Amino acid sequence: MRVRALFISNPQATTTTARSRDVIVRALASDIELDVAQTEYRDHAKEMARKAADEGYELVVSLGGDGTVNEVVNGLLSVPDEAKRPAYAALPGGSANVFIRALGLPSDPIEATGAVLEALRTGSRRTVGLGQIDEPGDGRYFTFCAGFGWDADVVHEVERQRRRGRRASPLLYTSIATQLFLKGGVGRDPSLSVEVPGREPVRDLYFALVTNTTPWTYAGAVAVQPTPRSRFELGLDVLAMTRMNTPVAAGVLRRMLSERGVPPQGRGYLTWHDQSEFTIRSRRPRAFQIDGEYLGHRKRVNFRSIPKALRMVG
C-alpha cells in the first residue's frame, strides 16, 4: 500500500520554478499517493499541515525555504500528542535552507527529492529535537535558531526589502548586517540578560543567538557556526556578546566562518551549551526572530528544548 502524502509548495520560494516543482511532483507521485497544494498567505502552510493530520495523511512534504519549514513544523506540532501526526519531509526551495542542510540533505531540490524517495523505500526515519518559545501550552517552535538584537534587526530589514520587491540572498543579508553595524547602534545597547535556572543572571549583553543545531546560517556555501557544539539531539545553545566593537566583532565573525566555529570561551562573548530552559530579557523592546522570521520587538522570551519532537523522513 502506497504512502498517502500532502505536498505543500511555496510559489514565492526564492530558488524554485514552476518547472522544477513539476519535476519534483512527478518524481514523488511515481512512488507515493500525492495530493498537491500551494501556499497563498502567511501561515497557510501551518494550516494545511494541521489539516493534513486531521485528514489522516501519513506524510507531509514541503518545498520552500526555512519560513515554510517553520510553518509546517508548527502545524504538525499543533496536533495533540495522543493523535497520529504525519511524518515530515522537507525539500529546499529558499535562499539558505538551513534546517534542511543541517539534516544532511542535498541543497539541490531535485537531489533532495531523490534522497527522500530513497528514505521512503528503505523506511529510514529520524526524530529531531526542537526549540520552543514562551509558554509550553501556547508556544511556537523553531527548528534551528532564534535571535535577540542585531540579527533580528537584520531579518526585520530584509523582510521590509522583500516587500519592496528585492530578492532575499546571502549578499542582501550581509549588506544589511554590515550597514546596521556601521551605524553604531549595535554596539551601544547592552540591554539583554540571560537567565539560566540555578545560576546568577548574566547582564549587559549586546545581542544573543539561540541555536538548536549547527550551523546558525550559511554565507553561500560556507557554514556560519557561532555554536559548533549545538545538535538536534541535545538541548539549546546560546552565544551572547559581552562587548561589541569592530575588533571584537571581526574576531568572532572570523571564527564563525572557520571550519571549527567559535570556541566555547573567548574575548567579547559568552556561550551556554545543551540547555533545557532559560530566559532572555531586555531592558527595552528589542527585535526578535526565529528561523529567519521577524516576530516583533520583545522584552522577554522564555526558551525550552523539546527532545525528539519531530519525526523526519530523509
From TrEMBL:
<dbReference type="GO" id="GO:0005886">
    <property type="term" value="C:plasma membrane"/>
</dbReference>
<dbReference type="InterPro" id="IPR050187">
    <property type="entry name" value="Lipid_Phosphate_FormReg"/>
</dbReference>
<comment type="similarity">
    <text>Belongs to the diacylglycerol/lipid kinase family.</text>
</comment>
<keyword id="KW-0418">Kinase</keyword>
<dbReference type="InterPro" id="IPR001206">
    <property type="entry name" value="Diacylglycerol_kinase_cat_dom"/>
</dbReference>
<dbReference type="InterPro" id="IPR016064">
    <property type="entry name" value="NAD/diacylglycerol_kinase_sf"/>
</dbReference>
<dbReference type="GO" id="GO:0004143">
    <property type="term" value="F:ATP-dependent diacylglycerol kinase activity"/>
</dbReference>
<keyword id="KW-0808">Transferase</keyword>
<protein>
    <submittedName>
        <fullName>Diacylglycerol kinase family enzyme</fullName>
    </submittedName>
</protein>
<dbReference type="InterPro" id="IPR017438">
    <property type="entry name" value="ATP-NAD_kinase_N"/>
</dbReference>
<feature type="domain" description="DAGKc">
    <location>
        <begin position="1"/>
        <end position="137"/>
    </location>
</feature>
<dbReference type="Pfam" id="PF00781">
    <property type="entry name" value="DAGK_cat"/>
</dbReference>
